[in-house]
Amino acid sequence: MSDNHYDYIFAGGGAAALSLLVRMQQEGILRDKKVLVIDKDKKEHNDRTWCFWEEKEGLFESCVVKTWDKIRFASPGYDAKLNPQPYQYKMIRSQGFYQYCNQIISQNSHIHFVQDMILNFENNAVVTTDGRYTGNIIFNSSIQYLDKDESRYHYFLQHFKGKFIETEQPFFEEGVATLMDFTIDQHNECRFMYILPVSKTKALIEFTIFSENLLEKEEYETELNNYIDEKLKYHAYKVTEEEFGVIPMYNQPFIKKINPHVFNIGTNGGASKASTGFTFHFIQEESKQLIAHLKKHPTLSNYNPKSKGRFQFYDDVFLRVLREKKVPAFYLFNCMFRKLPAYLPLKFLSEETSMLEDLKILRVFPTMVFMKAAIGELLKQPVRRAE
Ligand SMILES: Cc1cc2nc3c(=O)[nH]c(=O)nc-3n(C[C@H](O)[C@H](O)[C@H](O)COP(=O)(O)OP(=O)(O)OC[C@H]3O[C@@H](n4cnc5c(N)ncnc54)[C@H](O)[C@@H]3O)c2cc1C
Predict the structure, then answer these.
(1) Mean pLDDT of 234-259
(2) Which residues, in sequence order, are CB contacts of 323 under 8 Å at separation 6+?
C-alpha cells in the first residue's frame, strides 16, 4: 500500500471533521487504521464561538466554557427571561475545541495531520497543492459542491458580526443569555442582537441578520456600536476580540456523496438548519449516525442519512414566510417564545419534537400566512413578496 494511502481521510479539519474523528476514535473505529486530516489552517486559534442547547452532558463537555440556565427573548412590547429546562444553553470557544481534538490526534501515531490546500477530488483521491492522497473513505467538509436552483429553493444567509467586550464595572447579568433581542430597527428584514455574558464584566455581543444578501462591512460595525452605546448605554468598555460569520440557510438538499468514496459532512453536507443556521447540534447528530453505520459496515456505499422528514417541510415554509415578508420576521419567533414554555421552541428547532408537540407549536403561528406559504411550497409557486 502506498505511503499516501489512508483508511480514512478528513478533507477539512473543522467542527464536523473533528467531532466525527473524536467519536470514531472513542468508539474504537479507528483502531489499526491509518487516518489523515488535511486542512489549510493549523486550527490553533479562536476563529468562532459555538453556542447550542443541550439536555445532558455532551461529548465535548470539557470544552464548554459557559452555561446558562436562563435565556432572554425580547421583541417590541415583550421582554422575558425564560427557563429553558431541561435544556441548558452552552458556549464552546473554537480554540479550546481544536486544542482538545488536536491533543487526541497528536497522542495517536496512526492519525496524521497535513496543512495543505485541497483543490479537488478524483475518485478516491484528494488532490492538494502539494500532493495527492488516496483513501477508502473520505469525509469532505472543505470544498462545497452545490448547483443552486433559485427557481425552486430559498437561499437565505445568517450573517453576523460579534465583539467580545470587557467593561470596567460589573455590568452584565451573568446567568442570562439573550438569545434574540429584536428591539432594533428591522429594515424590513430579520435582525437581532445576541448577548452572551461569560462574566459580569465580559460578554460576546453579536449583531445577526437573516437575509438574502450581506451588508456593507461598516453597517455591521455601526449597528453593533449603536446598540452598545444607545441600548445598553455603556461606554467604558474595550473590545478584546471580534468575529464575523456567514452560515447558509438553504433549503436545497445538499449533496451527501460526491462519489462512492467521498462524503460531504458538516455545513457542506447540509448540517446547517435552513430556518435558523444552527449547526453544532446537527453536526453531533450527523456524527452519531455515521458511527452507528460504520460500526456495522466497513464502507459507506449503502449509507443513507436519516431524512429530515417533516422538519424539512417546516423549514421550507418558514423560509418562504421570511421571503414573502407578509409578517415581520420577529413576530414568528415572538409567537413561539411568548406563547409556549421555552423548552418547546428549542426542542422544535432541534427537530426533536413529537407530532403532538408540533401541533402545539404550529397553532401559535399566524394561520393564514403559514397555510398560504405551505400551499406555495407544495405547489412550488413563485414567491410573492409584500412591499
Ligand atoms: C463565526 C461563526 C460562528 C458560528 N457560531 C455558531 C453557533 O453559535 N452555533 C451553531 O450551531 N453554529 C454556529 N456556526 C455554524 C457552524 O457550526 C460552524 O460553521 C461550524 O464550524 C461548521 O463546521 P464544518 O466542519 O462544516 O465547517 P468548518 O468548521 O468551517 O470546517 C471546515 C474546514 O475546512 C477547511 N477548508 C476549507 N476549504 C479548504 C480547502 N480548500 N483546503 C483545505 N482546507 C479547507 C477550513 O479551514 C476549515 O477548518 C458558526 C459559524 C461561524 C462562521
Answers:
(1) 94
(2) 154, 156, 212, 383, 385
Distance in angstroms (rounded) separating the CA atoms of residues 24 and 12: 16
DSSP 8-state symbol, 387: -
Other CB atoms within 10 A of residue 202 CB: 18
- Domain ranges (residues) in the chain: 5-45+93-148+251-296, 155-249, 310-378
Mutate to test the pocket of ligand 1, among 36, 101, 102, 141 (most ligand atoms within 8 A of CB): 141
Which amino acid residue places its CA nearest to atom 31 of ligand 1?
Answer: 14
* Integer Cα distance of 384 and 307 in angstroms: 29
**Residues 316, 317, 318, 324: what is their CA dihedral angle, to the nearest 10 degrees?**
110
Residue 234: pLDDT band (50, 70, 90) is confident
DSSP 62: G
Residue 14 CA to ligand 1 centre (angstroms): 6
Superfamily of domain 5-45+93-148+251-296: FAD/NAD(P)-binding domain (3.50.50.60)
Report whether residue 40 contacts ligand 1, using a CB cutoff of 6 Å: yes
Tell me which of 3.30.1490, 3.40.50, 3.30.70, 1.20.1070 is the CATH number of domain 155-249.
3.30.70
pLDDT > 60? residue 1? no
pLDDT by residue (tens digit) across 128-180? 999 999 999 999 999 998 999 988 999 999 999 999 999 999 999 999 999 99
Q: Residue 220: enclosing H or E segment and its boundaries?
A: helix 217-226
